[in-house]
Amino acid sequence: MDRETVLEGEAARAWSRESKWEVLGPYLRRWGWEGFSYATLQDGFDYLIVEGLGYLAYDTVHHPVLAPRGIRAVFCSPICAPEAAPLLVERLLAHGRRVCLAPVSAQAARALRPLGFRCVSVGEEPLVPLKTYPLEGDWRDHDLVRRAWNEVRRHGIEIREVPDLSAVDRGALDRVTRVWLRHKPIPDREIRAYARPPVFGPEPDVRTFVAWDVAGEVVGFACYDPLYREGRVFGYSANLCRCDESRFSKLSVAMHMSAARVFREEGREVLNLCLAPFLGVDRAEFRDHRFTEWFFRLSDRYGSRIYNFGGLREHRVRYKVPGETKYFASRSLFPPNEAYLAYQGARMVDGYLSMAKDLLVGIGEGLVRDLRRGTRSR
After folding, report:
1. Bridge partners of 160?
2. Longest CA–CA separation in the chain, Å
3. CATH code 3.40.630.30 for 127-272
4. Residue 27: which residues within 8 A CB-CB, separation 6 or more?
């Protein structure tokens, strides 16, 4: 049997970024082709590593009622050859505790279903084809991009690449983050996993772009994680972007297009915009648990008090590019409970009852809103 290592708790937290890259980097550079693959390196994850095979990054989440013995919420598809994914998951299951995974690719979902996992779409990752996408925008099909460039030119904003975030004043970056958080449903803390926190130092192969206004003040920054295929960077994912949206509503689009111009000149293939939550749930290949699908639909339509699911989805849809479906995989009799625990691990929710309350309040507000619209249309 291949030698395996399990790092959890304090041992995982004490693992330095440099040592982590030394161990995990070879697997990532070979099989890290998904939008969140590189984000498995972020602080706070536990790991199962099977030498020569690959690794899993996960949160170990406890709940006094839903998971008193804990559950391992695996983040992203297993970083390994596609045919090895079931082997890695089986090795994790052998250590006890329940396991769920999200967001995983259709290929990974297909491999996990024979192990008893039921899979439901959590959305799509929109993919900007760098060779053909109109990076300047056009009036008819890509008006969002055109208007973003107009905003940048009108306000004299300069966007350029820097070596990493340590090359920029930390206080200026923190000011942008505070303004950015102020308009989010979770304004008091950083969340993890699905929007990875910034690293204020060099990271292998990560590209960093910063925006300054006409007065020289930092008004936005973005970090683009590499997408790997057999040791080569073939694209990037837009996994971290923060802007002063109160002043410049389309600055994030202009930053993505500025980065895309550079990546196109280098011969890269794709810019992955990361997860558009719950997009295309009803057209996914796997729809193994309809109640979970219904829960995701409710979260999408009425869950803005929990997280900006709908706003994020609608923004990414406006780029008008194809996407790859991503799945939530669970063996639970009631998968929505495990979806909640995955949210808890990412610090997206404060508690089960508070999440349920926010969702119910959102449903009530949505029904009132729909009723008013129906009345006005008569």
Report:
1. 210
2. 69
3. yes
4. 54, 55, 79, 80
Closest CA to 257 of 124, 123, 150, 125: 150
Whole-angstrom distance, CA of residue 369 vs CA of residue 237: 35
What does residue 227 show for φ and ψ, rounded to 5 degrees? -105, 125
Three-state SS for 77?
Answer: coil
List, for the chain, all residue ranges whose pLDDT scores fall below the cut of 50: none
For 169, the 3-state DSSP assignment is coil
In this prediction, residue 376 carries a pLDDT of 62
Say if residues 154 and 211 touch (Cβ distance below 8 Å): no
Burial class of 270 by CB neighbour count within 10 A (0 to 12, 13 to 18, 19+): buried
pLDDT at 171: 96
Q: How far apart are CA 276 and CA 86, in angstroms?
A: 26
Report residue 40 as tokens. 């498995």
Predicted local confidence at residue 299, as pLDDT: 82
pTM (2 d.p.): 0.92
Can you read off the two tokens belonging to residue 316? 């990414």
Residue environment code for 31-65, b if the CB has 16+ CB neighbours within 10 A, otherwise e: bbbbbbbbbbbbebbbbbbbeebbbbbbbbbebee
Name which of 51, 61, 54, 50 is nearest 40 in CA terms: 54
Under a CB-based contact definition with an 8 Å cutoff, are residues 17 and 28 in contact?
Answer: no
Question: DSSP assignment of 175-215, as one string?
Answer: HHHHHHHHTSSSTTS---STTPPP-SS--TT-EEEEEE-TT
CB burial class (10 A; 0-12, 13-18, 19+) of residue 90?
exposed
Cis peptide bond upstream of 86, omega within 30: no
Report domain extents, the chain.
4-125+276-375, 127-272
Query: What's the rounded Cα separation, in Å, for the pair 206 and 210?
Result: 13
pLDDT of residue 193: 60
DSSP 246-298: TT-TTHHHHHHHHHHHHHHHTT--EEE---EETTTGGG-S-B--HHHHHHHHH
Backbone torsion region of residue 54, taken as left when φ is above 0, otherwise alpha when ψ lies between -120 and 50, otherwise beta: left
